[in-house]
Amino acid sequence: MKKAYIMLCMAGCAAGILAGCGGKIEQTAEPFLYGDLTEVGDEYVVVGFAQVGSESDWRRANTNSFNETFTEENGYYLLYEDGQQKQENQLKAMRNFILQEVDYIVLDPIVETGWDGVLEEAKDAGIPVILSDRYAETADASLYTCWVGSDFEEEGRRAGEWLAMYLENRGRTREEIRIVTLQGTPGSTAQLGRTEGFGQILEQHGNWTMLDRQSGDFTQAKGEEVMEQFLEDYEDIDVVVCENDNMAFGAVEAIRKAGRTCGPDGDIIVICFDAMEAALEAMMRGEINAAFECNPLLGPEVDEIIQALERGEPVEKTRYVEETYYDTSMDLETILENRAY
Ligand code: GYE
What's the mean per-residue pLDDT of the chain? Predict the structure, then answer.
């Protein structure tokens, strides 16, 4: 283990600003770890975590998972940087970590491209980079140690298959089904995979029409804005696919303001991805039809990887976490009682 000297983090990025939280998200984690040249003892494994931001409930749970896992009691010293949904901030954070000679870098890349340069710098400095949640497209796979996260394409297919089954159960296989999509941050793995997976099932159904797809950047405020526009632009929307829970909350709000109804008893089917507690509660209120789970608890997964690397063992290059889905036909109350997020 190297000895790391923790310097002042980028002061310009101090505020943990929440985009479009609509009162549903609270900032729980410290956005940056400040320190004045604190010397960290050799007994700690120093991990620099370049997080995407704090745009959603999922993100908050993900950050908490790292904060709870990478504690001093567990032998870690965690440097946490909130990129505030800007690649530029994440690049700066990574360069800071390299300068500080951390033992490991954990990167959750906001988008898939544009990382080769900084990954090469980390490699030259001998610092392993673990990709968590979102993926980074690299020219050379040896630039990162491994990736752990969700099978986003499978999540998208699962949502499409659920919709097909739902419509079939309601005898709507012949009717034209008019769909809109609120997409996540363009170029992020979660957006690309969910769009692709759902698109594969869309292609199999001649009666489904994708009217429009626009980005709501994974936030509630933008989700609401885009849905408002969709409702003005298109008549008879049957389904809104929201690439995360928070955009679904925004969509539900826009639907309500437009005097329309949604959920199992309404006229617009709402489906979303993440399936965090608040989405299950919205399903219980009859606002959302189905939520496709995305597991945010990646802290323990990355911990296992680092422990294996510390023992000098090889690690799998790609590691998927298990996921399921929920809809209003299930006993959501009981499910919520036993749920960690
Ligand atoms: O679905 C969304 C968040 O990358 C899986 O990012 C993550 C996504 C998640 O903003 O809520």
Answer: 91
